[in-house]
Amino acid sequence: MQHQAESVLALFNLGNALQQRGSLEEAAACYRQAIALDPDYALAHNNLAVALMAQGRLDEAVASFAQALLLAPDYAEAHNNLGVALKRQKRLDEAIACYHRALAINPGYAKAMLNLGSAYLLKKDYAPALQWSQASLAIDPDQVEANQNIAAIMLEAGRLDEAQQYRDRAYRKQAIFIDLAPNRKRTVLLLWAAAKGNVPIEFLFPAQTNTLITWMMEYATEDQARSLPNYDLVFNAIGDSDVAGPTTATVARFLLDCRKPVLNHPAAVARTARNQIPALFAPIADTLVPLTLRLDPKDFKKRLLTLPGVRLPVLVRPSGSHGGDHLIKLESEQELTDLVAWNADCYYATNYHDYRSDDGYFRKYRMVFIDRQAYPYHLAIGERWLLHYETAGMLGEAWKRAEEAMFLEDPGGAIGPQAMAAVEAIGRKLDLDYCGLDFSVLPDGRVLVFEANATMLVHPEAGQDVLHFKNPYIQRIFDAFDALLTRRISAA
């Protein structure tokens, strides 16, 4: 028995050593051998789950964490780790419950507090997100992620100076973050903005095969540039021109000497500012881009309706916002007077254009451009002008999903050859390696442009069975992007 116990411990320790150096498959094999000798070894089940989670094998990881907890219900670390796995599966409420259980066992568990704050932040439940992020900082003031969380919460609340303070605390300590891929296919250097406005990259660069070096460019130094790990390609993830300003000079200096392929060059991103899109797309036939003006927040309420070309109703939003966040339609001068202004660097005002289809419904299409080629991503159909896929009734009404399926299968047939030609011309004009276009099609066949930039989110449909029909089309986008990365690296 003593010899077996020594063998179990030796296998467990070897697994830990292998895991520390990134040999995840070998580590998992050691843990499994230890478990075969001692099935009740909760620590081995937990560490096996950690190795599986690092490989992206989340279902197996969840099962192994659950087994560890079955054997050791008061194992706070396993509760926390199970929460991490569930969070990666987008099961946020279950993850939050796990973190609370970990804290019930160990009330001073700073990592569980941090994870709890991060999960609430993803749910946009800002009060508990702030509470738990602050609690974790009180125990460990150097936690980068907790400072990141609070910076994001302050930014969302319009408390820009406080957001900057927390960003400084986070990124002056650490400006480069490395995520190693267990089955590395390539290494990508991501140029990143510390605030909002980055390209959503989670599904574009799968963690299994893409080692990512994320560099916070507001805090970048020449010493950091000289000591960067080796990488194959640069992806400029700063997708919103409104947040690029503080990074422009630093990024330009770095790219001047960079000899690796660069995707989404900053010069092309700069042309996608909302107020520049009308002029950029003006030469494209069958395209309508409403007048959009960039306004100083100090006097925009007084000046807005005096500016040439501006008319009611008008859409107003703060800079740096996307997806309809903080977007307001002003229908009268009184509504403008009553508007409670946001704390923002500037506002955008856009003439509203009614885009109801002949059947009375509003339609918003999204196309994604990979290397300037158009791929359909989704269609939302609803009764309100401000359309979100989640609230447009797409889940409950089969006819809407059927129309979306037709668009995904044959976008040109769905929107018509006139509109399709305009969309394809827009992709060429944007001249970005990755970007997207939100638009509608007017009754006369013209494309009404809502937004065109690199910050468009593309994600697979994992939750709702009725939406799984979309995944083959979404996978085409990911496959095209992966092929683009391979081509650019091979051509370098």
Could you characterize what this model shows?
This protein is of the alpha/beta class. Among the domains are: 176-264; 291-351, 2-Layer Sandwich (Dna Ligase, domain 1); 362-491, D-amino Acid Aminotransferase, Chain A, domain 1. Helix content is 47%, strand content 16%. The strands form three sheets. A five-stranded mixed β-sheet has the order 1-3-2-4-5. Strands 6-14-13-11-12 form a five-stranded mixed β-sheet. A four-stranded antiparallel β-sheet has the order 7-10-8-9. Helix 2 (24-37) packs antiparallel against helix 3 (42-54) and helix 3 packs antiparallel against helix 4 (58-71). The longest helix is centred in the last third of the chain and has 21 residues, at 471-491. The protein starts with a helix and ends with a helix.
Summarize the structure.
The protein is α/β, with parallel strands linked by helices. It has 21 helices and 14 strands. The N and C termini lie far apart (59 Å).
Reconstruct the topology from this structure:
Elements: H1 2-20, H2 24-37, H3 42-54, H4 58-71, H5 76-88, H6 92-105, H7 110-122, H8 126-139, H9 144-156, H10 160-171, E1 176-179, E2 186-192, E3 210-216, H11 222-226, E4 233-236, H12 241-244, H13 248-257, E5 262-263, H14 266-270, H15 277-281, E6 287-288, E7 292-295, H16 300-303, E8 314-318, E9 328-330, H17 333-338, E10 347-351, E11 362-370, E12 373-382, H18 398-409, H19 411-415, H20 417-430, E13 434-441, E14 447-453, H21 471-491
Parallel strand pairs: 2-3, 2-4, 4-5, 6-14
Antiparallel strand pairs: 1-3, 7-10, 8-9, 8-10, 11-12, 11-13, 13-14
